[in-house]
Design a protein that fits this description.
alpha/beta; 3 domains; single chain; 7-stranded mixed beta sheet; Aspartate Aminotransferase, domain 2; globular
């Protein structure tokens, strides 16, 4: 029977001559229509082989060509799309980390829609530097002597070490030889820069004397890596930044700190501990500070390098800088985001990740109770929901183990497992991404924007 069914499947050319196929070719393209028909026929063949079907569809029926139409539409969908983060992880690496402020989006649009003075000095009419658009504001916010930006923080470390420590030793504590996202490790970044890694101390304890004893005529830099994506607790010891900077300068070395997440505000008053501000490190005597633009700063992906004028000037002359340079759209978003920091109260209200971190718990509870009321009014006995207190995390390689109180919805169903609920909500438009806990699907309202609640409601309604 299977062989008979397979032989009865029509040729693609014959299907293309039908009125329905001609309409699809005119509406889209012949290539897309052929590709969709071929894919659908292959699916039918596989279903015959697996005995999932025992008869063929009506190839002249509009329903068949509607399936073809849906395949074409699916093929035209953009791969990169908006998702709703209901995980409670504010800086979620897999979901693009920091959502941008409206001001950043507006500046991107303004800059992208035509030409810009990216590398044009309007005053003189001559070639300018793309870094001039953010350097002055970075200096104003942080009191740094100079600044330059590249495309991400790993690039910032790479070009800094390549400029200031190539062929020389970089002294690092063993407890700070971190692995960053995507499996990339700091020792590999140091090696790629052309510098020589010199490890000192132990995983949990490194003393100032360990650094001092390691210094020799080939030493160039003491590097401190902020452990922003993990935390060592218990029997630990490490010198502070000021002590390391003083040691470095007494031995004619440079002190570089890779801050990683890059807070421009004092985060301790918002419950985020152990996050040094950029300003504090510069005051402690660090020569170069590197950090990300899309973590605690709340902007686009970027690697920001601040420090002393002579060291930044040397980095700006490095040929690597062109290969690692920031693009104009990220630069526009970064300039707009940094401008908000001129008023710290404004920054916490307008920069989404800062607003989420500082959000009052009562407001989050209000969103949770509103969603619970919506679910309770659905005409179904198969969906169960309850509000509970829980914990959100900053995440995204920032502020490890810093917990924020939140309010969550726990969903369960008599017909759907938590995994099936998760799958169905991921297939919603836009996808809803939550987490599974205690045999329930969890929606954390701290990371759901108020204007996204209607989509969450629509997705939940689709479950019943």
């Amino acid at each position: 029977m299977a062989e008979n069914l397979l032989r009865s499947i029509p040729q693609i050319q014959g299907l293309l001559e039908t009125d329905s196929a001609v309409k699809l070719c005119n509406q889209y393209s012949r290539q897309e229509t052929v590709s969709a028909i071929r894919a659908h026929l292959e699916l039918i063949r596989n279903q015959i082989h697996s005995k999932a079907i025992t008869e063929l569809p009506d190839f002249n029926n509009e329903e068949f060509f509607e399936d073809i139409h849906q395949i074409i539409l699916h093929g035209r969908e953009r791969s990169l799309k908006q998702v709703i983060n209901a995980t409670g992880i504010i800086l979620h690496t897999n979901m693009g980390r920091a959502p941008l402020a409206e001001e950043a989006f507006d500046h991107i649009k303004e800059t992208a829609f035509g030409y810009s003075n990216l590398e044009l000095d309007i005053t003189t009419g001559k070639r300018g530097s793309r870094y001039m658009h953010v350097e002055s504001i970075l200096r104003k916010i942080t009191d740094a002597e100079a600044a330059v930006v590249v495309n991400n923080c790993a690039a910032a470390v790479l070009v800094s070490l390549n400029t200031l420590a190539k062929d020389g030793e970089v002294i690092v504590s063993r407890g700070e030889l971190i692995e960053i996202g995507g499996g990339f490790r700091m020792p590999d970044v140091i090696t790629a820069s052309g510098a020589i890694l010199k490890e000192v101390g132990t995983t949990n304890k490194t003393r100032l004397a360990d650094f001092e004893n390691a210094i020799n005529e080939n030493s160039k830099v003491i590097l401190r890596n902020h452990c922003s994506n993990y935390k060592i607790v218990g029997f630990t010891e490490s010198p502070n930044t000021k002590e390391l900077a003083e040691l470095a300068h007494s031995k004619n070395l440079l002190m570089i700190e890779d801050l990683g997440s890059g807070a421009l505000l004092n985060m301790a008053k918002y419950g985020i501990n152990n996050e040094h501000s950029v300003q504090q490190l510069l005051n402690d005597g660090v020569d170069v500070v590197t950090f990300s633009g899309d973590k605690l700063l709340g902007g686009p992906q970027a690697g920001i390098i601040l420090g002393r004028e002579n060291t930044i000037a040397a980095i700006k002359k490095n040929p690597l800088l062109r290969a690692l340079r920031i693009d104009k759209l990220s630069l526009a978003a970064l300039e707009a985001t940094l401008s908000l920091y001129l008023d710290q109260d404004l920054a916490t209200q307008r920069i989404p990740i800062l607003k989420m971190i500082t959000e009052d718990l009562s407001f989050i509870k209000k969103k949770a109770n509103s969603l619970l009321k919506f679910i309770s009014n659905l005409d179904t006995d198969n969906l169960n929901a309850r509000v509970e207190d829980s914990t959100s995390y900053v995440g995204g390689g920032s502020a490890p183990m810093n917990e924020l109180p939140t309010s969550i919805i726990k969903l369960s169903s008599n017909k759907l497992t938590p995994e099936k609920i998760a799958t169905q909500l991921r297939n919603h438009k836009p996808p809803i991404i939550g987490r599974i806990s205690d045999d329930c699907f969890v929606i954390d309202l701290r990371t759901v924007f108020p204007n996204q609640m209607k989509f969450v409601q629509s997705a939940i309604k689709s479950l019943v």
